[in-house]
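Entry:
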Amino acid sequence: MRSTNALGSPAPRREGREKVTGAARYAAEHMPPGCAYAWPVPATVARGRVTAVDDTAATGLPGVIGVLTPFNAPRLGPSDDPTLQLLQDPRVPHRGWYVALAVADTLEGARAAASQVRVDYASEPHDAVLSVDHPDAYTPQEANGGHPAHREQGDPDAALSAADVRVDCAYEVAPLHNHPMEPHAATAVWDAAGHHLTVHDSSQGAGPVRAALASLFELAEDDVTVVSEHVGGGFGSKGTPRPHVVLAAMAARHYDRPVKLSLPRAHLPATVGHRAPTLHRIGLGARADGTLTALTHEITTHTSRVREFVEQAAVPARVMYAVPDVRTTHRAVALDVPTPSWMRAPGEAPGMYALESAMDELADALGMDPIELRVRNEPTTEPDSGRPFSSRHLVECLREGAERFGWAGRRTPLREGPYLIGTGVAAATYPVLIAPSTARAHARPDGSHLVEINATDIGTGARTVLAQVAADALRVPLDSVSVAIGHTGLPAASLAGGSSGTGSWGWAVHDACAALGARLERHDGPLPAEGLSASADTTQSAKQKSPYARHAFGAHFAEVRVDTVTGEVRVRRLLGVFAAGHILNPRTARSQFKGAMIMGIGMALTEHSTVDAEFGDFTESDLAAYHVPAHADVPDLEAHWIDEHDKHLNPMGSKGIGEIGIVGTAAALGNAVAHATGRRLRELPLTPDRVLTALHGSAGTGRGR
């Protein structure tokens, strides 16, 4: 019998009741007997060395177990991530680097002890300021994701010079922070012999955490168990092991008792990664009819001196439009700042803000509708590689979005008293990423089914969709399928990141269930007491290089209201149309699209961080200073999609949807503000002070030339 809750139906979240009733247990909510609490001590200098640590006052407090420092902490084994080599030497590479860890019987005791630790430093000169002309700027070999840092086709400089119409603009995106609802937390327990480590960790991938801990504590991976059953968001910041889990395991082993560590929110910007600031320079050349002849996208970003991470913000320009002469390049500056890392749609989010803003400026210069400019430059194959697209319905997204939004009737900016009303559009793209995974499927004599896979549900609804994939492959009712995830004792799977989760895990689940179904068809009579099982491993399939360029696409439409008195920008409408393969669950998909669009509102209007040049840290370190959108900031929001039938993806025909919703949102809003005001702001976010300067100051703002 075919399930009515098969793929494509809006099945409700399986863990929803547990979450709203408090039954879902997160990493810091596990309470092993005798559990102690830890609180880290961040460095207060921008660069230098720890010369002494005085923990006398701290250890004299009631209930304090001890203080770990670079001078007494256990030595760790090797790691390919230097940010995890904690308390191993006295160097301080940036402000906020952990220099001590207080451990006590209670959370309050650990926090009090940490406040009493006195650290002496030998400070060194530091540099935390990014600039395009920084003398230490360099071109790395690769940007994040393994993309070549520099790509060039033809002679873009000559093509720009010869273009009928051209724009040459600079844009700036400030540092951004992930700030998941659940801070990074871990509860670590060693067995009595000290040979097996069990950790409950707030992570986007229990497997990588186990591998890192096994190396650092010189254990076999089988001697480490990591559980990430419920995770309260990550947005990339939990995509790799972070300091909290290493410190919790270190303290638990050293003091021979379970230890719980939940990072204070104010520590997150300096500790768990951030979206690096990006300085963009874009040149576009076109014929008078709007045909693009040249494109240059050059970005400069910062990385840390601890580990190189280069935001791949120029990469989207390699796939978007048909341009014969193109240069895309990345430059990095190693500064005394925390190490940047992944944040929802790394590269695409800031890169498409700049590219789609420049396309809007070019449309203005041409006197052409911005949708028609994009349609005119639609490529037939992926410009960078020449490969055919497995599917590309950007034009359809633009056309459908324009009709739903009423684009044609909103192209004249309006004035309503002190308010200026404008509209904007931008395109979106995100690559299809697939990683090898394994899964097991079981059929039981009572008619129930169990699927096992070490996937991680970070709030996306993975449990629900994987159960749908299984029910569809087995051709059984959805309520007969249960799913076990988030535990390293389960079949290994990729982490939740890069919008790759459902595509990667679902492929393995589908194959395991297909194999189980075939086995059930061959079986005669009742099932044995232990049931029947089958496994799948997609390593070979997932690693095969596709002859097709595989991307999701979308289009954003925005209407804004700009207050000429206060400079405040309010979003009145935001509409997105996406082409992201077969939508497996409309309910959870719409949630993902809308959540990403809301993050795009924050990126455009409120979210930013500032690197303090003198102290070398982020001044906006909590949610009081770092403004994420609240309910009042989120307007009439619509998310729609074109259901693609792409046979070149995976057995479900799905593309990732978790990140494309943020890509292009900021550009659509920025373009709407420019449409409303007649002033182009080229630095995010579009805060009231910047808007007022644009309205009442010079004719334009930012770095346009």
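The chain has three domains: 16-24+435-542, 31-125+178-271, 142-176+274-432+550-696.
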